[in-house]
UniProtKB/TrEMBL annotation:
InterPro entries per UniProt: NpmA, SAM-dependent_MTases_sf
Keyword Hydrolase part of the UniProt annotation: no
A GO biological-process term: methylation
The name this protein goes by in its record: Methyltransferase domain-containing protein
Recorded GO MF terms: methyltransferase activity
Keyword DNA damage: no
Classification via Pfam families: NpmA
Keywords tagged on the record: Methyltransferase, Transferase
Length: 214
C-alpha cells in the first residue's frame, strides 16, 4: 500500500500494516479524508485506535501527514496512517476495519456512497462484519444537482431510510439512521470541508447516515 508522509509516498507492506494494527485495539478508516484533519481529531481522542485516512489525492495530505509522522514530543501521532488509494480499489492488506467514516464525499466517491459502482462493496470487503459507519452528505450537491447524484433526488431523513437504505442493502450495508446535523454536530466532525463550506453559506445542510457494514 502507498503510505503518504509529507511530500513522500512510501511503500507500506501488508506485514508492516498488520504489525501496526496489532499494537492497537481496532482500525478506524476515513475514506476520502481530504487534508486528514478529521483523522488527527479522532486519533487524539482515541489513542487506542489505529486511524487510517485514505484519499485518491495525496497532495492535500502533505502537511497533516508530515505532522502525524513527527516524533510524539513534537505533536506526532503514532496511531495515524495516511494512504493514497481510490475507494474503488482499496489496498491489499487493508482488512479487519472496525469503523468507517466517509465525510462530505464528492466526485466518484459521492457517486459510490449513493450506491452507484463498486465503492460500497469495496469498503465492505475490508470491514469486519457489523462495523459501524458514519457517512455525511453535503446536501448542497443537489442545489443544483451535480452529475454524480444521477437520478437520485435530494435525500431527507425519511427517504434516506427507505430509497437510499435499499441501495445500501444491495451492497450488504444496513442504513438504520438518518438525520440532519445541527451546527454543533457539523463542528464536531472537525473536517476542513465542513468549516470551509459552512463559512461560505448562511445555512449549511448536512445529512448524516449511520448503520453497519455487512
Ligand atoms: C469534499 S472533500 C472532503 C474531504 C474530507 N472528508 C473533509 O470532510 O474535509 C472529498 C474528498 O474525496 C476524495 N475522493 C473523491 N473521490 C475519491 C475516490 N474515488 N477515492 C478516494 N478518495 C476520493 C477527494 O480527493 C477529496 O479529498
Amino acid at each position: 500500500m502507498h503510505r503518504v508522509i509529507g511530500k513522500r509516498v512510501v511503500e507500506l507492506s501488508a506485514a508492516e500494516f498488520a504489525a501496526l494494527r496489532e499494537r492497537h485495539t481496532a482500525v478506524l478508516l476515513d475514506v476520502g479524508t481530504g487534508d486528514g484533519k478529521h483523522v488527527l481529531h479522532v486519533a487524539r481522542e482515541r489513542p487506542d485506535l489505529l486511524v487510517v485516512g485514505l484519499d485518491a489525492n495525496a497532495d492535500a495530505l502533505r502537511k497533516t501527514s508530515a505532522k502525524a509522522a513527527a516524533r510524539a514530543d513534537r505533536g506526532g501521532l503514532p496511531n495515524v496512517v495516511f494512504l493514497r488509494a481510490a475507494a474503488e480499489r482499496l489496498p491489499d492488506g487493508l482488512s479487519d476495519v472496525a469503523e468507517v467514516h466517509v465525510l462530505m464525499p464528492w466526485g466518484s466517491l459521492l457517486r459510490g456512497m449513493l450506491g452507484e459502482g463498486p465503492v460500497l462493496e469495496a469498503i465492505s470487503a475490508v470491514c469486519r462484519p457489523g462495523a459501524p459507519f458514519l457517512v455525511t452528505l453535503n446536501l448542497h450537491a443537489w442545489r443544483p444537482p451535480v452529475p454524480e447524484v444521477g437520478e437520485l433526488p435530494e435525500p431527507d431523513p425519511a427517504s434516506a431510510r427507505t430509497a437510499l437504505a435499499e441501495r445500501y442493502a444491495a451492497a450488504g450495508w444496513r442504513l438504520t439512521e438518518a438525520e440532519y446535523l445541527d451546527d454543533a454536530g457539523i463542528a464536531a466532525l472537525a473536517t476542513s470541508w465542513t468549516k470551509r463550506l459552512g463559512s461560505s453559506r448562511a445555512r449549511f445542510d448536512v445529512l448524516a447516515l449511520r448503520g453497519t457494514v455487512g
